[in-house]
C-alpha cells in the first residue's frame, strides 16, 4: 500500500507521530510532506522547541517510523509522485489538518504539495482522510468541511472518545489513529473494539 501523509500547522503532532509509526509498519511506501507551520507544530508539541531547525525536526520526526519505506518531500516539490493522478497511490491523509489547509483544498486552490495531493485524491476518486483540529468552529470552517465531505473526503476530526477505558494520553491518541487506520483498511490492534 502506498500512502501520502501531509502534516499541517494544526495542533495534534502526537497523532501525526503515531500515524507515521503505524503506516510505516503496514505500508510498502509512505510519502511525508509537512508545511512550514506543520514543522513548527511538530517542533513545539513533540520536542518542546519551536525554533528547532527544519532539518532537525524532520530527522527527529522520522525516528517515529517503524520500518517500511518513508520518503520526505518538500512542500514545493511538484515532481513528487503525489502531485499527479498518474502515480498509483492508495490513500492520502492530512494529519493534523489546519483550517487554512482545509479552506484551501475546499476552494480548489493548490499552493503546496499537500493541497495538490488532496486535490489529486478528490479528482481521481481516491481515499482522502482529513483530520482537522480547531475549536470553536466558524460557519466558514463548517461549510468548508461540508464541501469537502460532499467532494468525497472523509472528515475525521481529532476528537478522541473516552468510552474505551483510556488511562493515558497515548490511549487517546491511539483511539483517533485507530479510526484513521480503519478508514484506510489497515489492520491494527491499537484499541479494543466496541463489543469485544
Ligand atoms: C503551535 C501552533 C498551533 C496551531 N494550532 C492550530 C489549530 O489547532 N488549528 C488551526 O487551524 N490552526 C492552528 N495554527 C495556525 C496554523 O498553523 C496557521 O493558520 C498556518 O498558516 C497553517 O498553515 P498550513 O495549513 O500550511 O500548515 C497553529 C499554529 C501554531 C504555531
What can you tell me about this protein's structure?
There is one protein chain. This protein has helices spanning 13-26, 36-47, 54-62, 99-107, 113-124, 139-150, 169-184; strands at 2-7, 29-34, 69-73, 91-97, 127-132, 154-155. The longest helix is centred in the C-terminal third of the chain and has 16 residues, at 169-184. It is globular and about 40 Å long. The model has no long low-confidence stretch (mean pLDDT 97). It contains 7 helices and 6 strands. It is of the alpha/beta class and 196 residues long. The structure holds flavin mononucleotide (FMN). The site of flavin mononucleotide has 16 residues, from helix 2 and helix 4.
List keywords for this structure.
196 residues, alpha/beta, 7 helices, 16% strand
